[in-house]
Automatic annotation (TrEMBL):
NCBIfam families: L-threonylcarbamoyladenylate synthase. This is tRNA threonylcarbamoyl adenosine modification protein, Sua5/YciO/YrdC/YwlC family. SUPFAM superfamilies: YrdC/RibB. It comes from the Bacteria. It comes from Halopseudomonas aestusnigri.
Amino acid sequence: MSQFFQIHPNNPQVRLIRQAADIVRQGGVIAYPTDSAYALGCQLGNKAALERIRRLRQLDDKHNFTLVCRDLSELGVYAKVDNTTFRLLKAATPGPYTFILNATSEVPRLLLHPKRRTIGLRVPDHQITLDLLEALGEPLLSVTLILPDDPLPLTDPEQIRDRLGKLVDLIIDGGACTVEPTTVISLLDGEAELLREGRGDPEPFGLSRDENLD
């Protein structure tokens, strides 16, 4: 059975945050809350943990994972960001957005888009996640916690426990999250493109909520 930590969403208990970081460092897969939906996460570059998440979500090797970062300075280590892009990011982070950016050489090859050196990155506005990232000292490799054949992400920690209690190493109960995933915005080549509309408002990027998506 997985461990189950009840952590205060606004004032996370330091002891539990440190224990959660240790579980990640030891190769564990965790379910944790964000400012959009709950997510599955593991240590950056841990291939075995990554494959566990792939099997759990039934993802192929073309699915893009996201690097969840604690701030823009950390994001800049893993993505190539010019001044114009930085200003856009600064206005929208932390928040419920995932940005598609050109990756730097710091990103492990297994995380890159198979045809382009791009990566999804985000800085969430959730204290538990930010404290966990601070304790880790590096990004979390993450995907939204939506199980195969489910129409929406899981939002109730007890439900997550019932369904994933034997499949992950830790479930962090930080209260209920929304069912909305992040808004995904490509910032390649200095232009914003809306790839998925979610909880984040695309209008600060000059994009309309009415834009038709495939």
